[in-house]
C-alpha cells in the first residue's frame, strides 16, 4: 500500500514496523517520552516493551472518579456554574412590560407568532440577521478567548462541562469521594448497590427533567406553561421536548461525560488549530518536575530529582481522567483543577507553586532555558487577540447601530402583473397593487398611505370603497402585525406608463415613514 | 495489512496504508459507538417491520402499521376538509348578498374562490381575470358589467351561465344581424354615432336617426346599455370586442355574443358562492342596486358580470 510514485526501496526505515504480531505497546505513550523529536525535546526516549497485542477494535470507557479538590480554580468553577445555571433557570421568569399588546416575558422566543423578544428588543423573522450576527459574534468571541486563554470555554462555561461537573458532584454526594466510588464500582451488585445506583440515577433524571423543563419556558409564557405543564394541558411538543432533553441531559451529562469532549465535539479540534505558542494553556513544567521522585528519594539524593513527587493528585482530580504530565492533549479541557491539586501538594512539601500552571508554550521554552517568563497578561495583549477582539467588537457595534436606526414602519409593494392595467368605463386606467404594511410597535397605529408622483392618481382599497377614492388613505394596522391591503390606483385616461411611489407615514408622534418606488402601467399610446 | 507500525509521537498503531506520506492512526473506536451502531440496526429492523420497506416485484412490503404515502396524503386532505367544514357550512347557509356583512367569511370565500377560479374560469377569463378582447371574454377586473356587478347578479350569472338554453330566462339575448339592412354610408354613419357616444367621434344627424331606429331599443338612447338583457353600454371606453370603427362595423353586421356554462350544474353551491366573492373582489364589485339601469323596466336583481360592447 505504498505510494505508487515512490519506489519500494526508497521507503522509510521500518525499524519499528509490526512484525509477526509482535508490536510495541498500543498503550498511549506520552509524546514527551516516546519521541525524541517531539515537541518538548527534553526527555530521553525509551522504547516501550514489545508485547503481543490482540487487535483492539473497540475500547471500553475507563470510568473516571475524580477526587474532590478545593482551590482558586475550583472556586472559580463553582462561581461560573452558579452564574450560568442561574442565568439559565432564572431568565424565563423575568418580566418586562411591553404594554397590553405584547407578551410581558423578558426573553421569549415566540415561534407560533414568529417573534423574538429580548428585554427591550423585538426581532421579527425578516430581521434574523441580528441573530446571525449574534451567532457570528459568539463564534469570533470563542476565537478571542481561545487565542488568549486557550480552551477556557471548554474548561468553565461549556454546558457539557457545567452539567458534567454537576453530575460529578452528585456522584460524590451520593457515593462519596474517589476511593469510595472506585470501591463501589468494583463491588458486586448487592441490594445496597442497587439502591444507591437507583437513588443516584433518579437524581440524574430529576436534573435532566429540570434542564429540559427550563428549556421550554423560553418558548411560551413561563408561568402559564408551568401551570399547564403540570395540569397536563400543555402542547404535546412541550412534553416531547422535555422528554428528549431529559434523555440527552442524563445520557450526555450522566454517562457520556468526557467522551462527548473527546469523541463527539468538534470544538476541541477547532480550538487546537486556533491556539498557538502564545496561547495560555494548562501545562506541566516538565523541566522542573522531571525526573520524578518521592520526597524521601529527593532528600537522599539531593539534586537528582525534580519537583514532581509522582503523587498523581493531578490525575486523580481530573474530570476527564487524563495525565497532564503527558503534555497538551485533546482530552484536556483546561479546567485547571490539576493546578489546584498540584499547588496544594507543593505547598504541603514546601516547594514553590506552579509545577502545573497556566503558561504559554513560548514561556515554557523561555523558562526552561532559565529566563524569566513574561507576565500572563502579555498573553492577552498581542496583535492576534486584538484583531479578533476588534472584529468581534466591530460586529457588535454594527448590530447595535442597525438596531438603533431600524424603523418600525415598513411597506412592501407588489404590483399585479396580470393584468398589468385595465380600463375603467370612463377611460381611466387602473392598476392594482398588493401592499404589505408592517407595524412593529406593540400598539395599533393609524398609518397614512399616499401616492407620490402620479398626477391625478387616486386610490381605494379592498376595505375603502371607490366612492371614497383619494390620493391618500388612512388605515389602521394592528399592534405588531403586517396588514395586507389591495390598493386600486386609478389615473386619468391620458396617463402614461410612469414611475411613482407609495409612501406610508405613521400618524403618531414618531411620524415614521417608508417609501417604495413602483410603476404605473398604462396602454401604449395608439 | 503490511506496513503497520507504531506511530512514535502518539504510541498508536497505524492502519498500514500510506498516501503520499500521510498515514492513519488506528485508534480504537469507543465501545459506546458500537452500541449506537447496534441500536441503529435494531431500529432498522423495527422500521422494516412497521413500515413499507422491501421492494418486491410489483410493490414494497406493506409494513405492520399499514402506512402509505398516499394514505398519509388522503388523511391530511381529509383533515384539511374537516377543518374547512364549518366554514363551508357557514357559507352554504348565508345568503350571497349578505356575504359582505361578514368580512372574515368574505375573506375566506375570496381565497377559496381564487383557487376555484384558477381551475374552472381561467381558461377563458385568464388567470388574472383580464379576459380577452380578441376572443370576446370579458375582463372581470373593471367596473363595466354586462349583466350587473353586485353579488346577487354575479352569483346568478355564474350559477345559471350566460345564454344557456335551460331555465335561464334572465341571461338570454340575441343581437340581430344587420347585414344588408344598411348601405355603406348608413353603416358608416351609425358606426360614427356609436363611437360618438363615448366621445370618440363626431355625431351626425343621420347616424343618430339610424341609431334611434335600430339600436336604442336595447342599447338605450344615450348608449347606456341595458343589463336586463345584457346589452352592453356603448357610451363608455370599454369595448368587449374592440373599439375601432372596423370592429364596430363587424359587430353590427355579424354580431358575436358570448356564452358561459351554467356552473351551478357543475360545481357545488358553496364553490359558486366562493367564485362570486372572488369575482366581486377583483375591484369592480358594485353595491346592490347602486347602478340604476336606464332601461324602461329595471330588473330588481341586477346581473352578473361582464363588461363589453359589441
User: What percentage of amino acids of chain B are in beta strands?
Assistant: 5-15%
Helix and strand composition category of chain A: alpha+beta
Q: Number of helix segments of chain A?
A: 18
Helix and strand content put the structural class of chain B at mainly alpha
CATH topology of one domain in chain A: Immunoglobulin-like
Instruction: State the order of secondary-structure elements of chain B, H for helix, E for strand.
Output: EEEEHHHHHHHHHH
Please tell me about this protein's structure.
The complex is a heterodimer of chains A (526) and B (310). Chain A is α+β, with helices and mostly antiparallel strands. Chain A is built from 18 helices and 17 strands. Chain A has a domain of 112 residues: Immunoglobulins (Immunoglobulin-like, Sandwich), CATH 2.60.40.10. In chain A, strand 16 and strand 17 form a beta hairpin. The longest helix of chain A is centred in the middle third of the chain and has 26 residues. Chain A is elongated. The termini of chain A are far apart. With 310 residues, chain B is mostly helical. Among the domains of chain B are: 37 residues, no CATH class; 147 residues, Cytochrome c-like domain (Cytochrome Bc1 Complex, Chain D, domain 2, Orthogonal Bundle). In chain B, 41% of the residues lie in helices and 5% in strands. The N and C termini of chain B lie far apart (92 Å). At the A-B interface, strand 3 and strand 10 of A face strand 2, strand 4 and helix 1 of B. Strand 3 of chain A pairs parallel with strand 4 of chain B.
Amino acid at each position: 500500500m505504498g505510494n505508487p510514485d515512490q519506489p519500494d526501496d526508497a521507503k522509510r526505515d521500518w525499524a519499528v514496523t509490526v512484525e509477526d504480531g509482535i508490536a510495541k505497546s498500543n498503550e498511549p505513550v506520552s509524546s514527551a517520552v516516546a519521541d525524541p523529536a517531539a515537541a518538548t525535546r527534553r526527555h530521553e526516549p525509551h522504547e516501550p516493551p514489545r508485547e503481543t497485542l490482540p487487535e483492539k477494535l473497540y475500547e471500553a470507557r475507563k470510568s473516571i472518579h475524580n477526587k474532590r479538590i478545593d482551590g482558586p480554580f475550583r472556586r472559580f468553577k463553582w462561581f461560573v456554574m452558579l452564574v450560568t445555571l442561574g442565568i439559565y433557570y432564572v431568565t424565563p421568569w423575568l418580566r418586562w412590560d411591553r404594554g397590553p399588546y405584547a407578551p410581558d416575558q423578558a426573553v421569549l422566543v415566540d415561534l407560533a407568532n414568529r417573534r423574538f423578544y429580548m428585554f427591550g428588543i423585538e426581532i421579527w423573522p425578516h430581521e434574523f440577521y441580528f441573530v446571525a450576527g449574534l451567532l457570528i459574534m459568539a463564534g469570533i468571541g470563542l476565537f478571542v478567548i481561545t487565542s488568549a486563554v486557550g480552551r477556557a470555554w471548554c474548561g468553565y462555561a461549556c454546558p457539557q462541562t457545567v452539567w458534567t461537573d454537576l453530575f460529578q458532584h452528585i456522584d460524590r454526594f451520593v457515593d462519596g469521594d474517589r476511593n469510595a466510588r472506585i470501591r463501589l464500582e468494583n463491588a458486586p451488585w448487592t441490594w445496597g448497590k442497587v439502591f444507591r445506583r437507583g437513588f443516584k440515577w433518579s437524581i440524574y433524571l430529576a436534573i435532566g427533567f429540570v434542564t429540559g423543563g427550563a428549556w421550554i419556558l423560553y418558548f411560551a409564557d413561563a408561568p402559564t406553561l408551568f401551570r399547564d405543564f403540570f395540569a397536563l394541558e400543555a402542547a404535546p411538543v412541550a412534553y416531547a421536548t422535555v422528554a428528549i432533553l431529559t434523555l440527552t441531559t442524563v445520557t450526555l451529562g450522566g454517562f457520556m461525560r468526557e467522551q462527548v469532549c473527546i469523541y463527539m465535539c468538534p470544538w476541541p479540534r477547532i480550538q487546537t488549530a486556533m491556539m498557538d505558542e502564545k496561547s495560555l494553556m494548562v501545562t506541566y513544567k516538565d523541566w522542573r518536575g522531571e525526573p520524578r521522585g518521592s520526597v524521601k528519594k529527593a532528600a537522599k539524593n539531593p539534586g537528582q530529582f525534580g519537583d514532581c513527587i509522582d503523587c498523581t493528585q493531578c490525575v486523580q482530580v481530573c474530570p476527564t481522567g487524563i495525565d497532564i504530565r503527558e503534555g497538551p492533549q485533546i482530552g484536556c479541557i483546561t479546567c485547571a483543577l490539576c493546578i489546584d491539586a498540584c499547588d496544594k501538594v507543593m505547598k504541603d512539601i514546601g516547594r514553590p507553586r506552579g509545577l502545573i500552571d497556566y503558561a504559554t508554550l513560548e514561556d515554557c521554552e523561555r523558562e526552561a532555558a532559565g529566563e524569566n517568563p513574561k507576565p500572563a497578561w502579555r498573553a492577552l495583549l498581542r496583535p492576534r487577540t486584538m484583531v479578533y477582539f476588534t472584529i468581534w467588537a466591530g460586529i457588535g457595534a454594527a448590530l447595535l447601530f442597525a438596531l438603533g436606526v431600524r424603523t418600525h414602519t415598513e411597506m412592501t409593494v407588489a404590483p399585479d402583473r396580470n393584468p398589468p392595467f385595465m380600463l375603467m368605463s370612463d377611460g381611466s386606467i387602473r392598476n392594482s397593487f398588493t401592499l404589505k404594511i408592517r407595524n412593529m410597535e406593540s400598539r395599533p397605529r393609524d398609518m397614512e398611505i399616499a401616492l407620490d408622483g402620479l398626477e391625478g392618481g387616486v386610490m381605494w382599497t379592498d376595505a375603502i370603497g371607490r366612492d371614497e377614492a383619494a390620493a391618500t388613505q388612512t388605515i389602521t394596522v394592528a399592534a405588531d402585525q403586517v396588514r395586507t391591503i389591495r390598493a386600486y390606483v386609478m389615473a386619468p385616461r391620458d396617463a402614461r406608463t410612469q414611475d411613482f411611489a407609495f409612501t406610508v407615514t405613521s400618524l403618531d408622534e414618531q411620524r415614521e415613514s417608508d417609501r417604495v418606488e413602483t410603476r404605473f402601467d398604462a396602454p401604449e399610446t395608439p | 495489512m503490511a506496513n503497520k507500525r507504531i506511530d512514535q509521537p502518539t504510541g498508536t498503531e497505524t492502519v498500514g496504508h500510506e498516501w503520499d506520506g500521510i498515514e492513519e492512526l488506528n485508534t480504537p473506536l469507543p465501545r459506546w459507538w458500537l452500541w449506537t451502531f447496534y441500536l441503529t440496526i435494531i431500529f432498522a429492523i423495527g422500521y422494516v417491520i412497521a413500515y413499507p420497506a422491501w421492494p418486491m416485484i410489483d410493490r414494497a412490503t406493506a409494513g405492520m402499521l399499514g402506512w402509505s404515502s398516499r394514505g398519509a396524503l388522503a388523511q391530511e386532505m381529509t383533515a384539511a376538509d374537516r377543518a374547512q367544514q364549518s366554514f363551508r357550512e357557514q357559507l352554504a347557509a348565508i345568503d350571497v348578498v349578505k356575504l359582505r356583512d361578514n368580512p372574515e367569511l368574505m375573506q375566506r370565500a375570496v381565497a377559496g374562490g381564487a383557487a376555484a377560479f384558477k381551475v374552472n374560469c381561467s381558461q377563458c377569463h385568464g388567470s388574472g381575470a383580464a379576459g380577452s378582447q380578441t376572443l370576446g371574454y370579458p375582463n372581470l377586473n373593471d367596473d363595466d358589467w354586462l349583466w350587473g356587478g353586485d353579488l346577487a347578479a354575479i352569483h346568478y350569472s355564474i350559477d345559471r351561465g350566460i345564454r344557456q338554453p335551460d331555465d335561464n330566462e334572465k341571461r338570454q339575448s340575441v343581437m340581430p344581424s344587420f347585414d344588408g339592412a344598411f348601405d355603406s354610408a348608413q353603416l358608416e354613419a351609425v358606426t360614427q354615432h356609436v363611437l360618438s357616444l363615448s366621445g370618440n367621434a363626431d355625431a351626425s344627424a343621420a347616424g343618430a336617426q339610424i341609431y334611434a331606429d335600430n339600436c336604442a331599443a336595447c342599447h338605450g338612447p344615450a348608449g347606456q346599455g341595458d343589463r336586463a338583457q345584457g346589452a352592453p353600454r356603448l357610451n363608455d371606453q370599454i369595448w368587449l370586442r374592440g373599439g375601432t370603427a372596423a370592429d364596430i362595423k363587424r359587430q353590427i353586421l355579424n354580431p358575436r355574443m358570448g356564452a358561459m356554462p351554467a356552473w351551478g350544474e357543475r360545481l357545488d353551491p358553496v364553490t359558486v358562492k366562493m367564485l362570486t366573492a372572488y369575482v366581486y373582489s377583483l375591484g369592480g364589485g358594485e353595491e346592490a342596486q347602486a347602478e340604476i339601469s336606464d332601461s324602461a323596466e329595471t330588473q330588481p336583481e341586477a346581473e352578473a358580470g361582464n363588461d363589453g360592447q359589441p
